[in-house]
Design goal:
single chain, 222 residues, mainly alpha, 10 helices
């Protein structure tokens, strides 16, 4: 399973490195979202600073939709989905590999967004261990849930519009938990943020477990 996961993750990441979609399209979009938020709230810098945690995670959610759609658009072209089904690879390994590739892309985008928040919003980063743990847990949850719902919507003609409708309500715990944990860390009360980080870790574990079990039947769907 883990060997197959490594093969799939390596394949997806090589495709992204060659196409440069993440660096040339998704990353500029993420920065543009932060700029638009900053322009809208600029008259009151206090509100902008206090809202930076929520704005960060909203931008991450928008970027995750693009990354997930991109991951399954690759498989939809030239019979890639059929090739996966016939490859003999472990479906759980395929799930973990695609989730790992999305995780790496989102983690890189989050570093860019964090730098943008510090520069444009004047946010001071404190509570680094909590911030790092929150990003890891939230990104794992986004990747697992996104991969599961991505394969569910990939075989449908309206996948571009259906995926956000299916996925965004499911990712509400990530938005809430990530925002609350970041607020606690940036506010200097890191102890209040660890329960929210635990919620994110639970969410990631549930979707990773469910994805490894359900990905095979979902991949077989036309």
């Amino acid at each position: 399973m883990f060997r197959d996961a490594g093969l799939i993750a390596g394949k997806d990441l090589r495709v992204e490195l060659r196409s440069r979609v993440t660096t040339q399209q998704v990353a500029p979009f993420a920065i543009l979202v932060l700029i638009l938020f900053g322009v809208a709230l600029d008259p009151d810098r206090g509100i902008l600073t206090r809202a930076s945690s929520g704005l960060f995670w909203v931008a991450v959610l928008f970027c995750s939709l693009l990354a997930i759609q991109r991951a399954f658009t690759i498989e939809a072209a030239d019979g890639g989905r059929d090739a996966l089904r016939l490859s003999g690879l472990d479906p759980a390994g395929i799930f973990l590999g695609k989730a790992a590739a999305i995780f790496v892309q989102l983690a890189a985008l989050e570093m860019v967004l964090a730098l943008g928040v510090v520069i444009m919003y004047g946010t001071e980063i404190t509570g680094v261990p909590l911030l790092a743990a929150t990003c890891l847990a939230a990104t794992a949850g986004l990747s697992a849930a996104g991969t599961l719902y991505g394969v569910l919507a990939a075989g449908l003609r309206v996948r571009e519009t259906l995926l956000p409708i299916l996925l965004l309500p499911v990712l509400a715990p990530v938005l809430i938990g990530g925002t609350k944990a970041f607020e606690a860390a940036l506010g200097g009360v890191a102890a209040d943020g660890w329960p929210w980080c635990g919620l994110l870790a639970t969410f990631a574990l549930l979707y990773t477990t469910f994805g490894t079990l359900a990905f095979g039947p979902l991949l077989e769907e036309p």
